[in-house]
Amino acid sequence: MDLPAAIVENTEMPNPDDRNLWTSSEHALDYLHKADTIPHRTEGEAALLEFVPRDAGRILDVGSGDGRLLMLVRADRPRTEFVALDFSPAMLEALHRRFDCDARVTVVPHDFSNPLPPLGHFDAVISSFAIHHVRHERKRSLYAEIFGLLSPGGVFCNLEHVSSPTDQLHRQFLRSMGLRPEEEDPSNKLLDLEQQLTWLREIGYAEVDCHWKWRELALLAGVKRDSRNLRGE
Ligand SMILES: C[S@@+](CC[C@H](N)C(=O)[O-])C[C@H]1O[C@@H](n2cnc3c(N)ncnc32)[C@H](O)[C@@H]1O
Questions:
Q1: Which atom in ligand 1 lies closest to the alpha carbon of residue 127?
Q2: How far is Cα 164 from Cα 188, in angstroms, rounded to an integer?
Q3: Is residue 10 in some structural domain?
Q4: CA of residue 63 to ligand 1 center, whole Å
Q5: 222 pairs with which residues across the strands?
Q6: What gap in Å lies between CA 9 and CA 72, rounded to an integer?
């Protein structure tokens, strides 16, 4: 007998691939305590800043955490409006503490494993160390949704945790982060850099490249070409 779709959904077992610990306050606060100790992250953030236009009117930060990256980008973009999106109650609380008095920043609670809510268009979409927490197929569809949100000429900059090409390199990465294998975040769904760059190109992003990389940390970026500007600049 065919069951109605809603009942079929309810009988599904939770998929371990969907594990995401980021709604736990303990997990979020533990990250915030260690965020400054991630090796080379400031280099990756500095590289990202280079690709975000100074005159951007609107910028979306996907998986904002406590607003660390947003603060960096905001510092020398005094007229830009920002949307910070996250789903962790602890991170949302930190975002509200930081930005409630700032009329240029809107905080949007949302689980980006689901389609993004209507947010309008953006001159840049930024993200750091967030999108690798959703399944691969959702990474791709999220990249496509972000492409749809970009204004012509807009840029997507994703400072991301990608997979290592070999187990040995992965173990070396964990060691360089001061982590034992059992301490690795079970929410991670790491995917190789090349696959993600290929997706960005297939979706229609132009000027796609990895502009910075240290071990498993990489800056992926692409532009939504402005068809009114054939030189794409
Ligand atoms: C490693 S932290 C990075 C935070 C911030 N971007 C930074 O660089 O410090 C990952 C962030 O992604 C958020 N996140 C993970 N999965 C998410 C999801 N499905 N929807 C919304 N936010 C998510 C977490 O709550 C957390 O704030």
A1: 6
A2: 13
A3: no
A4: 4
A5: 156
A6: 42
Has residue 193 been placed in a domain? Answer: yes
Structural domain for 91, as ranges? 38-223
Q: How far is Cα 103 from Cα 227, in angstroms, rounded to an integer?
A: 33
Q: In the numeric block, which tokens belong to residue 217?
A: 């940390």
With a 6 Å cutoff on the Cβ, whether 160 touches ligand 1 is: no
Residue appearing with tokens 């949307």: 83
Closest listed residue to residue 220, CA positions, set 40, 41, 48, 42: 48
Computed on alpha carbons and rounded to an integer, the radius of gyration of the chain in Å comes to: 18
Rounded to an integer, what distance in angstroms lies between the CA atom of residue 106 and that of residue 129? 20
The Cβ-side half-sphere exposure at 33, using a 13 Å CA radius, reads: 6
Q: Point out the ligand 1 atom lying closest to the alpha carbon of residue 68.
A: 9
> Residue 89 Cα, ligand 1 centroid: separation in angstroms?
11
Is residue 233 included in any domain, yes or no? no
* Tally of domains within the chain: 1
- pLDDT tens column, 1-59: 343 343 334 445 667 678 999 999 999 999 999 999 999 999 999 999 999 999 999 99
**CATH code at 106?**
3.40.50.150
Q: Would residue 190 count as lying in a domain?
A: yes
